[in-house]
Amino acid sequence: MIAFSLVILAISMFAMIQALNDYQAGQYTQFIVYGLMASVGTVLAISSITRMRQRMVYLQHVAAKVLSQVICAGCGFKVLRPFSTGDYVSKEVGQCQQCKGKMQVDVIYAEDVKPKKA
To answer: Which sign, positive or negative, has the C-alpha torsion 24, 25, 28, 32?
Structure first.
């Protein structure tokens, strides 16, 4: 989408140069046509690029937080921790802090994050 906007911006710049050349040559009708094309194209391209940037920033704020629940097979002690690459259900991840039993990944889930209203 950004590439398309940049192409439109480049075409608008070409139209602006053509409009200036037509103005210098005294062809005012073509100057107005190319000037309008350049103006509208520039506004649309810049608007599209800024909206895309705003959308990317918004999506970063709304991204879900992925958690792994680790549980001890012996005593049932549970720990929630951020998801680590390579985590899978029933993966052993160390010893229990309470009974020294084996800790395993029990559940992996995404926590809903509600967007903050500005």
So the answer is: negative
